[in-house]
Amino acid sequence: MIEPPETTFTDSRRVRCEGATDTAPALGHPRVWLEIDETGYVDCGYCDRRFILRGSEAERGNREVMRGDLPAPADGSVA
To answer: Tens digit of pLDDT for each residue in 15-66?
Structure first.
């Protein structure tokens, strides 16, 4: 089973990412600044960490489908 990417909730639309853990920056992951748009979330292009804006529809779970949350195929096969 693949673990989902780390998710961080924030009060700011502008966030900094240095890797998927807070204890030590990931090797090869530069410090990047990301901007949360009207979707209410942004994913880091290096580590896939997701930043979700508190109070947004993304936090309330009103997004229809978020990356990684796709339903299983109707025929029961593994995609």
So the answer is: 999 876 655 555 678 999 999 999 999 999 988 899 999 999 888 874 444 5
> Could you give the CA distance from residue 54 to residue 28 in angstroms, rounded to a whole number?
29
Dihedral, CA of residue 6, residue 12, residue 17 and residue 21, to nearest 10:
-40
Where exactly are the structural domains of the chain? 7-60
Which pair of tokens denotes residue 30?
A: 């530069």
CATH number of 7-60: 2.60.260.40
Instruction: Give the H or E element holding residue 34.
Output: strand 32-35
Number of C-alpha atoms within 13 angstroms, CB side, residue 47? 23
